[in-house]
Write a structure and sequence with these properties.
Elements lengths: L4 H13 L4 E5 L7 H8 L7 E10 L1 E10 L2 E3 L1 H9 L3 E4 L2 H8 L17 E4 L8 E4 L5 E5 L2 H5 L2 E4 L3 E3 L4
Parallel strand pairs: 3-6, 6-9
Antiparallel strand pairs: 1-8, 2-3, 2-5, 4-10, 7-8
Length: 167
């Protein structure tokens, strides 16, 4: 079930509160996954980012939202696990992601997240003039100045992800 309106309003208020420029891009929910979105709407994967929630497994209860370029792979079992200070970590399930963020996979964004959920941004994202990422639902994307991610509480982390090539 699509989260939609309430979450989108919260996200748009959060991105606007950063004071940085942004654009809202309407998206067919069936095309919200990054590869499909980029192919259909003509945006380069190199300028697209994913917000991925990671959950600790040993011990449980430590979570983080990580923003990485779609052309990279999040280093869950290396850097993320060590920074969380846990023995095991993995991608959060769709249900846990929705529980923690109020957002569905394909629409997760660092804007409007609960205060207790840290936001880590791979340093590569900051090298872009603008980045496309989720808008809180599968119906919109945001095209933002990456400094807005920091203004929204994100922490830039070197080598949070490793290069893999196109999505």
């Amino acid at each position: 079930m699509e989260a939609g309106g309430g979450v989108e309003a919260l996200v748009l208020a959060a991105v606007a509160a950063t004071g940085h420029r942004y654009q809202v891009i309407a998206c067919d929910p069936e095309l919200a996954d990054t590869a499909a979105f980029c192919a259909h709407y003509g945006y380069p994967p190199e300028e697209s980012a994913n917000t991925i929630v990671v959950a600790s497994r040993r011990p449980e209860g430590r979570n983080v939202a990580c923003v990485v370029l779609s052309t990279t792979r999040l280093d869950v079992n290396g850097l993320v696990r060590r920074r969380l200070g846990v023995r095991k970590a993995s991608f959060a399930s769709a249900d846990l992601t929705a529980e923690l963020t109020g957002m569905m996979i394909g629409g997760v964004t660092p804007f409007g997240l609960p205060d207790g959920l840290p936001r880590w941004i791979d340093a590569r994202v900051m090298g872009l003039e603008r980045v496309i990422l989720g808008g809180g639902s599968r119906s919109i994307k945001l095209h933002v100045d990456p400094v807005a991610l920091v203004a929204a509480g994100g922490v830039v982390v070197e080598d949070l992800a490793t290069a893999t090539g196109p999505v």
